[in-house]
Design a protein that fits this description.
The protein has about 250 residues and is an alpha/beta fold. The chain has a single domain, classed as Vaccinia Virus protein VP39 (Rossmann fold). It is about 35% helix and about 20% strand. It is built from nine helices and seven strands; from the N terminus they run H-H-H-E-H-E-H-E-E-H-E-H-H-E-E-H. A seven-stranded mixed β-sheet has the order 3-2-1-4-5-7-6, with helices on both faces. Helix 3 (about 30-45) packs across helix 4 (about 70-75). The longest helix is centred in the first third of the chain and has 16 residues, at about 30-45. The structure holds S-adenosylmethionine (SAM). The site of S-adenosylmethionine has 22 residues, from helix 4 and strand 2.
């Protein structure tokens, strides 16, 4: 199966230098390692330090691009192996041109079905990738992430929040036309707290769900696990949904 139209901006032939300038939130070349450390530390130090990869763990990044975050993960944690999964052969080639590490490998796939067995990875993360994937495809990938996550493992996923919509360099109306006209550029898809809550807790049925809004990233970080017999990491998470707030204000 071919990835859908959003994918063209990622799969085209392009040099490493051009990708480094284009795909990292407008951050300058000198700052790319620090940008990657920023995502790493936000996920594995500030929000979910208990999710840090341990000795020998197999770690998966979804949408690894040219590998900056994988590289700084290796710099800090004693994992056994890290796999970057991507739909773009060119991106993988450029990542391998940029760095090599015996613990790092890259896997190309069709954009729908992860080529990994169930329950395989104890740690999975994704930054600045799911936001570019059409929502109906992204939902199928969220299910795939849950499928390949090991029991008691940790998945941490980064999503753009609806709060980012008024601040994106591309006006939202233009964004809509880009999608309608299949323009070969970055498309953005935004999420709200309630939407993420329903997707993960009701439709996928994860355990240890947590959703944190990060103002400076204008983003959500979602954490979940599997087979822990605990639906939410913080018991009060459902109270932050619209429904939860409404019920608190007007108890039935
Ligand atoms: C903006 S780049 C981010 C790269 C990296 N995560 C980072 O932040 O440095 C988005 C990446 O997601 C990849 N991508 C797009 N659709 C994807 C999909 N369905 N599955 C996995 N990766 C995908 C693109 O090819 C690209 O490498």
């Amino acid at each position: 199966m071919e990835p859908t139209a959003y994918a063209a901006a990622w799969t085209r032939e392009e040099s490493l230098d051009s990708l480094n300038r284009r795909i990292h939130d407008g951050v300058s070349l000198e700052q790319l390692a620090d940008r990657a450390r920023g995502y790493r530390d936000q996920m594995f130090e500030v929000l979910y330090p208990f999710a840090q990869p341990k000795e020998g763990d197999h770690v998966l990044e979804i949408g690894s691009g040219v590998g900056w975050i994988m590289q700084v993960m290796l710099e800090k944690f004693p994992m056994g192996e890290i796999t970057g999964l991507d739909i773009s052969e060119n991106m993988i080639r450029r990542a391998q041109e940029r760095f090599s590490d015996p613990k790092a490998q890259f896997v190309l796939y069709d954009g729908f079905n992860f080529p990994f067995s169930d329950n395989y990875f104890p740690v999975i993360y994704s930054c600045a990738a799911l936001q570019h994937i059409e929502k109906h495809v992204a939902f199928l990938l969220m299910r795939e992430i849950y499928r390949v996550l090991a029991p008691q493992g940790h998945a941490i996923l980064h999503f753009l929040s609806v709060n980012h919509m008024p601040h994106n360099g591309i006006p939202y109306e233009q964004e809509c036309w880009n999608i309608i006209n299949n323009v070969e550029t970055h498309w953005h898809f935004y999420y709200s707290f309630d939407e993420l809550f329903i997707l993960f807790s009701e439709l996928i049925g994860v355990d240890d769900l947590d959703i944190q809004h990060n103002e400076s990233f204008n983003s959500f970080f979602v954490h979940f696990s599997k087979n822990t017999q605990r639906k939410f990491l913080r018991e009060d998470l459902p109270h932050f949904t619209y429904q939860g707030r409404f019920n608190q204000t007007f108890p039935i």
